[in-house]
Specification:
Helices cover about 55% and strands about 0% of the residues. The chain is mainly alpha-helical and about 250 residues long. It folds into two domains: about 120 residues, no CATH class; about 80 residues, no CATH class. It is elongated and about 90 Å long.
């Protein structure tokens, strides 16, 4: 028996997802079209990791795709074989396959029973599920912070810096991109690095500049802060009398 031509949409998942809640209209449409396209792929619930094909499947122009792709791709992960997948949709596919297997053996599971054993079922690999893809699925994966939460952390740790007045789509795209690039990132630790830097906070006596939120979340500056490029340097010890004489009279 082949894969079902439809997949269930769990309303609570859609409404409660911080990633979907902040999507623009174009991004939301593209996201659902990519979900549908992945469901119909021969390799279950996955997509080719190809910009041109993704743009075509999302049915948007090149300029629109460039604007929304960070929002959309934040909902997908990359498997061991390089293909993209939605963790939730892949889980749904696994569950459906187990239902079909149970039905073919004369067994029958109720909807409530399946939902109650959701996590247990997903931990049991099927023959068609590759080991590399399965290892990417973590049901207890740490929920990443929303843009609103990240701005709140910024205000908490860096109160001297200019406040964020609006959470624009550009800011959302940058935040989501950083979350995707650094899945284990602790934003509190990041802004604590910023708060302890005299240069970034504008506390250096010969520095009239201070960092702004937009500067801190762009890719090039983000990695510099993470790598400690702006940490305070220890002041050299005071010169002794002997060193002064040596410097002056050599």
């Amino acid at each position: 028996m082949g894969k079902l031509p439809y997949f269930p949409c769990y309303a609570r998942d859609v409404i409660s997802s911080s990633k979907i809640a902040t999507m623009s209209g174009d991004a939301f449409k593209a996201y659902w079209l990519l979900l549908c396209a992945s469901w119909l792929e021969d390799e279950r619930a996955t997509l080719p990791n190809n910009e041109a094909k993704l743009e075509a499947l999302a049915r948007v122009g090149a300029s629109t795709w460039l604007e929304i792709k960070d929002e959309v791709m934040a909902c997908f992960e990359t498997s061991g074989n390089g293909r993209l997948f939605s963790p939730r949709l892949l889980e749904v596919s696994l569950l459906q396959e187990k239902r079909r297997e149970a039905g073919s053996k004369g067994g029958s599971k109720t909807q409530a029973g399946d939902e109650a054993t959701w996590k247990q079922n997903l931990k049991q690999p099927t023959k068609r599920q590759s080991q590399s893809t399965e290892s990417e699925i973590e049901l207890n994966k740490k929920e990443e912070k929303t843009p609103q939460e990240i701005v709140a952390v910024f205000h908490e740790y860096c109160p001297e810096l200019p406040k964020v007045q609006r959470i624009t789509q550009t800011r959302i795209r940058h935040i989501k991109a950083r979350n995707r690039e650094y899945p284990d990132l602790d934003w509190r630790e990041y802004f604590e690095k910023v708060a302890t830097s005299d240069f970034l906070m504008g506390r250096s006596p010969d520095n009239n500049w201070s960092a702004k939120f937009d500067w801190l979340i762009t890719p090039a500056n983000f990695v510099k802060v993470l790598e400690g490029n702006y940490e305070n340097r220890a002041a050299p010890p005071p010169e002794t009398a002997e060193q002064a004489v040596e410097r002056l009279y050599g």
